[in-house]
Amino acid sequence: MSAETTAAGHAVHVPATLEEFMLHALAMERDAIERYTDFADQMETHNNRDVAAMFRTMAGYETKHAQEIMDQMGWKEPPVLALQGVRWARFDSPEAPSIDSVHYLMQPWHALQLALAAEQRAEAFFGELAAVATNDEVRAKALELQAEEAEHVELVKAWMAKVPQPEGDWENDPDPPRYID
Ligand code: ZN
After folding, report:
1. What's the 155 CA to ligand 1 centre distance in angstroms?
2. Residue 177 lies inside a defined structural domain of this protein
């Protein structure tokens, strides 16, 4: 693993081996499953069943990807300890918007926008993996996953065209909740 320091002074680790790349990929897929499940729950809370169903479908796709990565690497179970050691490179980061930071008034359009960014990152990641792969089987798998992520990007875009764009004042709740600490 090579360590580099960004202009901002953050140490980032660029995966140097196939195993590290695949650990990143698996961590990314697991994050995606969690994010889509959270989005689906949130959309159900808002009674938006169509968009909730779409997020459940996406969670299912990414679950399949996670399994493919594990099969490819011969991992019987997720390598939990190694996954905890994954340092995010440029593909994703702990600073990426998390469900906790998502506004409680978030509309389907906002959730879809976060999903779009995540799918584009995933597509770029597998493209990079294909470019550096030294093994034909791995390169073929990476290209296959990249193509599937490109389909996810299109799927999310198609959904974005179906949901209403938020009004400029969507953040203004006429009856805001009061928090008691
Ligand atoms: Zn995807």
Report:
1. 10
2. no
Using an 8 Å Cβ cutoff, are 22 and 67 in contact? no
**% pLDDT > 70, the chain:** 72
Q: Output the CA 118–ligand 1 centroid distance in Å.
A: 8
- Spacing, Cα 121 to ligand 1 middle (Å): 9
Residue 165 CA, ligand 1 centroid: distance in Å: 23
Q: Enumerate the β-bridge partners of residue 5.
A: 11
Number of domains in the chain: 1
Domain that holds residue 98: 15-161
The per-residue pLDDT for range 91-148, each reduced to its tens digit, is 444 444 455 545 555 678 888 888 898 889 889 988 888 888 777 877 888 898 899 9
Here the CATH number for the domain that contains residue 151 is 1.20.1260.10
First to last CA, the chain: 44
Distance 149 CA to ligand 1 centre (A): 4
Within-domain flag for 9: no
Residue 1 resides in a domain: no
Beta bridge partners of 3: 13
In a domain, 172, yes or no: no
